[in-house]
Amino acid sequence: MDQALQEAVEQENVPRESWKDTVRSIRKKWTTKEGLLGDYNYAFLFTPSYPFQDYIARKRGLEPVHRDQPFFSLNSDIPVVLGFILGLQHSLSMLAGVITPPILIAGVAKMDTKIQEYLVSVSLIVSGIMSAVQITRFHIPYTPYYIGSGVISVVGTSFATITLVNNVFPMMYNTGYCPVAADGTQLPCPDGYGALLGTSCVCALLEILIAFTPSSLLQKMFPKIVTGPVIVCIALSLIESGFQDWVGGSGCVDAICPSKGAPMAGEWGSARFIGLGFLVYTTIIIFEKYGAPIMRSCAVILGLLVGCIVAAACGYFDKTSIDAAPAGTFMWVHTFKLSVYGPAVLPMLVVYIVLATECIGDVTATCEVSRLEVEGAQYESRIQGAVLSDGLSGLLSGLCTITPMSTFAQNNGVISITKCASRQVGYWCCFFMIIMGIFAKFGAALVAIPKPVLGGMTTFLFTSVAVAGIKIISTTPFTRRDRFVLTCSLLPGIGATLVPTWFSKFFTYSGSNNTLQGFLNAIELIMESGFAVCAIVGIVLNQFLPQELDEELMDDIELQQENLSVFDERNDPEMISHILSSKAKEAEASESQNPQSYELKDSIRVTEEASSSDTERR
Q1: Which has the least CB within 10 A, 168, 196, 441, 510?
Q2: Do residues 547 and 586 lie in contact, with contact meaning Cβ atoms separated by under 8 Å?
Q3: Residues 6+ away with beta carbon under 8 Å from 322
Q4: What pLDDT does residue 616 have?
Q5: What is the pTM assigned to this prediction?
């Protein structure tokens, strides 16, 4: 891999234009129509569809016109107005994912409204800064390594941390680490939040180390059959919390929501709460079906906006916190005492392993939609830089008083729709994220969103996380051994998610040995964190059980051999390698004690046209 990275460094070392040329190009960009607007078809971005559009057009004798938009590559020069619009689109597409974790985590830690507003604002600011690092791609001097992927791989607050927080803070309150009032009411726990941040900073070193690990070893240790189930288990816990917010609020189950005396307070599960969440849900679907391209990519945040408008008109909003919020804010306005919470270390390490594997998948998808290579020296260099930047984001975000940041995949849809992969658009996106974070009133308005409205949006987002995990699992062509590993890892993972206190009575020690008690608490936390126990079981069984050829796999190999017979007069190693099932390669390599990683086995249709186009693409 080092040789591949060295080749990538040589490819990146291209002469840069002089400062005079840079000034000249900037002047042209901001003072000419070509630089400001270009010749882009802006109507394409803002033209929605409507029901029965094709039918009405046929009745009117009109033929649908499909215009191909130009593709803007990684280093293309983008008109100022187009960059502004697409950058705003990117920021809106990731906004919901960035603000959701701090709101939920602050709620679990019983933080007051001011702290919640601050955490939302800081999440936006840190997201913009770390996204700029990921997009820019810095070369580490005197080494073949980079920081950043060099593509539009944006960074946002990780959802995986929410699942961990939902298990850690109840333990903190039960063990006295967080304060509890005399009547049993759980009080704000800033020290517990600081312990979570400190633990995150320490565990981020693991992902930084992973960045310098050969990709072949990573694929062997954490294949898709391991990481897919972990993501599903993470999502299941999130969906429960989001759905509770949908029907009133996760903090007021079977009580009055949001609280007695609050605007439009009502019983948890009342029809009007469910209706508000359902409005957001259906609006997302409508925008996805009939919205213009610029709307479809940010349908989630538009659904949230419609829900907020209706909620405000019906009197659900409390403007007190918005009026009391300052005009601006920045990092370190509020600080927390950093420490390490021992029981959370191992689950947090699992979180960073998941973040590293997610980062690899997200950057690979970004390279594909950006029409960049997904193999070879340049690709491996991008993956190395992306994972290193992702690990540094986890470390620096903790020092900036926010939970771990990780690479997002939402923006790949924007690139695909707009056909724009230029980094200039990525920088516009970072600009908007930082601006939205600095204006504290914006963060206060987001925190004041009624729980049913927020729940309608977050449940949709969390379910998309589960779908992403299912997609990862589906890319593994199952053998009997794979089904066995998947079953064994999902059993404790889903079980611990559905029955979160199943291990709480296992240990009965009640002595004064704090070290032993902390060790037992750590084991309990791991066993009650569904994603953590799922990951541990999956990693162990994947290494313990060898891959083997079963009847289904043998039939698959025979089919591929028949397909390869078409190419008996073509000795093209690249084409033959593309046709062969990677699962067959893995099983064959397993016999020689050199197992390979799982990859997606494409359905094989051998035609002369398909083979020629595939060769041209390569």
Answers
A1: 510
A2: yes
A3: 441, 444, 445, 448
A4: 45
A5: 0.78
